[in-house]
Write a structure and sequence with these properties.
The chain is mostly helical. It is built from five helices and no strands. 54% of the residues lie in helices and 0% in strands.
């Protein structure tokens, strides 16, 4: 998808940053990426979320928010949060 029609390594390298955007959107809602503001980027995000590899490895916004709290507020980052509930490969 970057820059062509098929998903490539660049897409997977960028994805983790975009996976965390919903946490930012909670704090600053006007930064939300949607089809009105950023139609191509919103379509890319929807496509990435539909991929099996992304579905199986992504964390939800609550998990990212919890980690950010342990990092910034508690000053004791919980790097293992959410891993116990993930299937073993």
């Amino acid at each position: 998808m970057f820059p062509g029609d098929t998903v490539c390594m660049v897409d997977f390298m960028l994805w983790p940053w975009f996976e965390r955007l919903p946490v930012l959107n909670r704090v600053v809602p006007e930064t939300a990426i949607n089809h009105r503001n950023y139609p191509r980027l919103a379509s890319w995000i929807e496509h990435m979320v539909s991929l099996p590899a992304v579905k199986e490895t992504m964390f939800d916004a609550d998990s990212h928010a919890h980690f950010l709290k342990t990092l910034r507020v508690d000053k004791n980052p919980n790097f293992d949060y959410g891993l116990s509930s993930r299937p073993k490969l």
